[in-house]
Design brief:
23 strands; single chain; 6-stranded mixed beta sheet; 5-stranded antiparallel beta sheet; alpha+beta; globular
């Protein structure tokens, strides 16, 4: 499978660090060599359980970007680069964790001394640079920001028990994170249980406990409106607008994230599928997006819709098997594009919606939800024919004739002013239970993305899973289903956006 993306030079030092871990473990990604039993131990179940519980399974670090509430506009790019550095540092630390299992067995303090302490030192320096960027632009940084430098190791028992990796209390801010001087509308910000170890397919996760037979799940959501989308209400603005943008027939892939890490190569550390705008990469300006081609049938919709790819871990050497964001960061196997990508906008059950501003950015879900807690998680997994049963922290095993479904219902309340915010979340919000918007926010069309995949159902034998499918992600997230997320930048022209609003507010179903 090819890809359509701008060619950029990969920093050799970064690539070497990731490659050394992959090569030390046999290639094809970051695997859990020597995790269950050391060279001198037998493979008895008692040793396997003992080692699994005792060793560090992954790394959890506080999300600095999420805590930044106000970043001056002039500091935006500098802060974005430093937040991306924090992500890279975690990825590199995880690579070292995965490639030093034998040393860890011989030294109980190895992880703390050789991995976590150096990681903290790097994070202290990076967080200091974030503060310098903000202060040079006339802003202020919270006094507690430096407390977010310390990371912790999550043991096998924690992961098995479903600990979502919430940072220790000592790392939480002790003052209101809203303090600081603004100056712009856009700054930058950078589970479940399950068996821990190499799943036998060349990646750390997913594992047997990450899957559930959808037929054994009780219905847990209201009936949909007949097409797989959750209805937004039976009163208020009841119309809809569907935009048809294909399923990435152009093979538009990259490992960037223009919203979170503009100007940063491989800022996502995992591969994204793109439909709609064909000019989206880390270096695209709003003007670039406005002038780009689009895969949408309605050429007035140049919006960019993107999400992490799904892969089947069947041993396939994909085009990115030896690249950062791909195999060198634990994202291995065959990339599977959606067989259906249904994108539509719906209304608000309390009243009319207003137009979205051009270049509005929305992220829904959280790529780090496994280690950082599920406060921003918005994953929804199901199967065709069973969409009244939505899974948040499990992947579904679908019966024969049924396909895997990923659904993302976006935030649909807007602050009425900003197209982005320092942590990429504060300018938008979900509606309250009664459908109203809080804090003076106004209702905008709710974006709903429904992706259908024809992937083979994985087979579980003796607690081991064969050829599982999984969403791409940061390697330390162990490919957990709760880390699924979805991104959107509105690049509709004003006339089309006004049509969307009119269709929704007058109860029409338009396309």
């Amino acid at each position: 499978m090819g890809r359509n993306t701008r060619k950029r030079r990969t920093p050799l030092a970064t690539k070497a660090i990731a490659a050394s871990a992959a090569l030390a473990l046999g290639g094809g990604g970051l695997v859990w060599a020597n995790f269950y039993a050391s060279a001198h131990e037998s493979n008895k179940a008692e040793n396997r359980v003992k080692t699994t519980g005792a060793q560090i399974a992954t790394i959890s670090c506080p999300d600095v970007g999420e805590k930044l509430r106000k970043v001056p506009r002039r500091a935006r790019n500098g802060v974005a680069r430093e937040l991306a550095n924090l992500d890279k540092q975690i990825t590199e630390a995880y690579a070292r964790l995965a490639s030093t299992r034998q040393a860890q067995e011989g030294d109980p303090a190895f992880v703390q001394n050789a991995i976590l302490n150096p990681l903290k030192s790097k994070r202290v320096a990076t967080i200091d640079r974030i503060g310098i960027n903000v202060r040079r632009a006339g802003g202020t940084t919270p006094r507690w920001l430096g407390k977010l430098a310390e990371c912790k190791g999550m043991g096998g028992d924690e992961v098995n028990n479903g600990d979502g990796g919430t940072p220790p209390a000592s790392q939480e801010p002790s003052v209101d994170p809203g303090q600081g001087d603004g100056g712009g509308d856009a700054g930058n910000g950078g589970g479940d249980g399950g068996q821990v170890g190499d799943n036998g397919n060349g990646a750390a996760g997913p594992f047997a406990d990450d899957f559930v037979d959808i037929t054994t799940v009780e219905p847990n959501t209201p009936p949909s409106n007949g097409n797989g989308f959750a209805a937004n209400g039976d009163s208020g603005s009841q119309g809809s607008f569907t935009t048809v943008c294909g399923v990435n027939e152009n093979n538009k892939f990259n490992t960037d994230n223009l919203i979170v890490a503009p100007g940063v190569d491989n800022g996502a550390h995992h591969l994204h599928d793109y439909v709609g705008n064909q000019g989206n990469d880390a270096f695209a300006s709003d003007e670039d997006l406005a002038n780009a081609d689009t895969s949408c049938q309605n050429q007035a919709d140049k919006s960019t819709y993107y999400w992490p790819v799904i892969r089947v871990q069947d041993g396939t050497q994909e085009f990115d098997a030896n690249e950062l964001g791909g195999g060198l960061e634990g994202n291995v196997g065959r990339v599977v594009k959606a067989s259906q990508a249904e994108i539509r906008f719906v209304g608000n059950k309390q009243g009319d919606v207003v137009a979205m501003p051009k270049f509005l950015r929305i992220i829904t879900g959280a790529a780090n939800a496994f280690t950082n807690g599920d406060a921003n998680a918005n994953a929804a997994w199901s199967c065709t024919g069973f969409e009244d049963r939505q899974l948040r922290d499990k992947y579904p095993i679908c019966p024969q004739g049924s396909q895997v479904v990923r659904t993302a219902n976006f935030q649909s309340c807007w602050d009425g002013q900003n197209i982005d915010s320092a942590n990429h979340r504060d300018h938008v919000a979900f509606v309250q239970e009664d459908g109203t918007c809080a804090n003076g926010f106004v209702a905008i069309p709710q974006l709903q993305v429904r992706l259908v995949y024809d992937v083979p159902a994985p087979v579980i034998e003796n607690g081991q899973i064969q050829a599982p499918f999984a969403v791409d992600g940061f390697p330390e997230q162990l490919h957990k289903p709760i880390t699924d997320h979805n991104d959107f930048i509105n690049v509709m022209d004003d006339e089309l956006m006004n049509q969307v609003v009119e269709c929704i507010n007058t109860g029409q179903d338009c396309q």
